[in-house]
Amino acid sequence: MAKIIDGKQISQQIKDELKEEVKKLKAEGRNCCLAVIQVGNDPASSVYVGNKKKACAYIGIESRAYELPEETTEEELLSLIEDLNQDSGVHGILCQLPLPAHIREEKVIDAISPEKDVDGFHPQNVGALVIGRKGFVSCTPAGIIELLKRSGIEIEGKRCVMIGRSNIVGKPMALLMLRENATVTVCHSRTRNLKEICKEADILIAAIGKPQQITGEYIKEGTVVIDVGIHRNADNKLCGDVAFAEAEPLASAITPVPGGVGPMTIAMLMKNCVEAMKNGSADK
Ligand code: NAP
Predict the structure, then answer these.
(1) How many angstroms separate the alpha carbon of residue 269 from the centre of ligand 1?
(2) In a designed cystine with 268, which of 7, 81, 143, 182 is the match (CB 3.0 to 4.6 A)?
(3) Quick check: pTM over 0.90?
């Protein structure tokens, strides 16, 4: 029987810690503000943006919403970002992805000042992670490290297998596990013998983007299984990249979907925002 890693509870703990911290900072006259930009009205993005605003309100972070129409030009969006970069009242800037096809995601990521890049997507922050310097780290991988640590799971010396190499999950996750002294293997769509490699893992992290792909055949007994995926199954219920019913009896610990990795992403975004404020990003 695996220990269920409760992301809901751990993320709540982090939000409560931040709430206390923000309260103290407010008492010193320091207010934290996050600018959230959404272009168009993709329903999934609207849910994510709504959840981010709710988390801000809970912790005591001011959130400024910029809801732009679908036909917003790249130039207009870049100009708004530049204004927010210059605005000393804004500490963090987040532009909800994906963007409409006529706007280049890369241009937008590059335009956000690295000091206000609370998503951790700017090349300067990614580079800082690679060479072990201070910077903002992508929220989902950072959240997984918190989940492991706060669940008392040792990382050092462990064999970690990361399935997926995306810029927002797989690559930063692999680098963070390396920073924590795990021995890391990164797998992707061209990997040969995926099952055999996964079976070597002490900690298996699945970000493959395919529902319930990682079945019991991929899991060695006693492995810690972290499921990053979020999908809707045929019954419209949420499920992950891992076939939970098969994996759970084999794993020593496992994250459920929902209630595992998902809630950690927003908690870490909030943490980055408070960090940006403490770094004085808006007051320079
Ligand atoms: P992605 O950009 O689609 O990347 C998927 C990765 O899986 C790619 O690196 C791909 O390899 C690899 N892959 C695909 N098929 C494979 C196969 N058969 N064998 C081995 N590797 C394979 O996805 P992502 O953005 O990293 O997200 C992954 C999942 O996490 C999605 O379900 C997403 O919804 C979810 N997600 C959740 C959160 C959260 O807050 N919980 C945040 C972000 C993402 P190639 O590079 O070779 O194509």
Answers:
(1) 20
(2) 143
(3) yes
Mutation to probe ligand 1, out of 139, 140, 163, 169 (largest number of atoms < 8 A from CB):
169
Domains of the chain (ranges plus CATH)?
28-114 (3.40.50.10860), 139-262 (3.40.50.720)
Q: Please name which of 271, 186, 252, 280 lies closest in space to residue 10, comparing C-alpha atoms.
A: 271
158: three-class secondary structure by DSSP: coil
**58-113: pLDDT as tens digits:** 999 999 999 999 999 999 999 999 999 999 999 999 999 999 999 999 999 999 99
Q: Tell me what pLDDT residue 224 has.
A: 99
- The arrangement of strands across the sheet holding 92-95 comes to 62-68, 33-39, 92-95
What whole-number distance in Å separates Cα of residue 232 and Cα of residue 99? Answer: 22
Q: Do residues 211 and 231 touch, judged by C-beta distance below 8 A?
A: yes
pLDDT of residue 280: 84
- By most ligand atoms within 8 Å of CB, the mutation choice from 119, 175, 189, 239 for ligand 1 is 189
Q: Kindly give the interhelix angle for 139-150 and 262-278, rounded to the nearest 10 degrees.
A: 100
Determine the atom of ligand 1 nearest the C-alpha atom of 169: 26
